[in-house]
Amino acid sequence: MESTGAEATSQGGHSRTVIALVDDDRNILTTVSIALQAEGFDTRVYSDGEAALGALLSNPPDLAIFDIKMPKMDGMELLRRLREKSALPVIFLTSKDDETDEQAGLEMGADDYIAKPFSLRLLLARIRAILRRSGGDHPLLLSEQFDDKPGEVLERGRLFMDPARHHVTWEGEPVSLTVTEFLLLEALAARPGVIKSRNQLMDAAYPDDVFVDDRTVDSHIKRMRRKFRSVDQGFSAIETLYGAGYSFNEG
Predict the structure, then answer these.
(1) 8 A C-beta contact, residue 154 and residue 213
(2) Is 60 helix (H, G, I), strand (E, B) or coil?
(3) Can you say whether the dihedral through the CA atoms of 137, 143, 149, 151 is positive or negative?
(4) β pairing state of 112-115 and 90-94
(5) CA torsion, points 20, 22, 25, 28, in degrees to nearest 10?
(6) Where do the TM regions start and end (predicted)?
(7) Bridge partners for 5 per DSSP
(8) Among 85, 87, 84, 93, which residue's Cα sits nearest to residue 112?
(9) What is the DSSP letter of 16?
(10) pTM over 0.70, yes/no
(11) d(CA 51, CA 244)
(12) Cα angle at 221 between 217 and 177, to 5 degrees?
């Protein structure tokens, strides 16, 4: 199954932003595609990874959304083969219990993941944030109507964060964070030394009343520390306060 959105052009001469959806659940393909088109995106949909791979490489969209569990070629294999030739931004859709797959997918190069069932508002926010980070001239990000109004540049000791570009450095070295990791770090770094509970961090990263358990926040923090330690083995700025939450130490 494949459906391609019209190659339309928005006002001002900008090509419309194209999102590819890869999922064997026809209801999800239909629902998400309609929601994205209502927001001004073009969509292309594929029912399995095998059908999607060639099209994603030969005629790349601006961003792709993959389900992990699919017939013929699952999302993990699709991402692995895509990453051999392309840096196309990818969001994974996962079931709530797929923490191992989530970690493997992020390590293979997925930009973020969202657990099913998910809120369309959350998905749209993640899409816009990743499009901002990936750069390019996306028309839907040029209008205040669709802008998430990213905050000002944040500098805390050796940490530099630019929300408008979704750019993070530590001691001048770039650190590639997913959107969720970026939002968690921004919440911590905004008030150094202040303990943020897991519930407060959930609210910062999942602003649409989406249920997230403590384990998910802990997993994001663990992966984020690992990324910072890849550029600074002594990184210890994110502190765990057992039973209370986390804090950012800029010293």
Answers:
(1) no
(2) coil
(3) positive
(4) parallel
(5) -30
(6) none
(7) none
(8) 93
(9) P
(10) no
(11) 47
(12) 110
Output the six-digit token pair for 106: 């992020």
Alpha-helix residue ranges (DSSP H) falling in the chain: 26-38, 49-58, 75-83, 99-108, 120-134, 179-189, 198-205, 214-229
Q: Residues 6 or more apart from 181 whose CB is under 8 A from it?
A: 220, 223, 224, 227
Hey, is 226 helix, strand or coil? helix
Which residues make Cβ contacts (< 8 Å) with residue 191, sequence separation at least 6? Answer: 248
Q: Answer left, alpha or beta for residue 233, where phi above 0 means left and psi between -120 and 50 means alpha.
A: alpha
Q: Show the tokens assigned to 28.
A: 């999800």
Angle between helices 214-229 and 179-189 (to 10 degrees): 90
CA distance 71 to 48: 6
Domains of the chain: 18-134 (3.40.50.2300), 154-248 (1.10.10.10)
Pairing mode, strands 18-22 and 42-46: parallel
With vertex at residue 201, the alpha carbon angle to CA 200 and CA 204, rounded to the nearest 5 degrees, is 95
Q: For the residues of 173-219, what is the DSSP string, one character each? A: EE----HHHHHHHHHHHTSTT--B-HHHHHHHH-TT-----HHHHHH
Question: What is the tens place of the pLDDT at every residue in 4-38?
Answer: 443 443 444 447 899 999 999 999 999 999 999 99
How do residues 55-103 score in pLDDT, each as one tens digit?
999 999 999 999 888 888 988 899 989 988 888 889 988 775 555 666 6
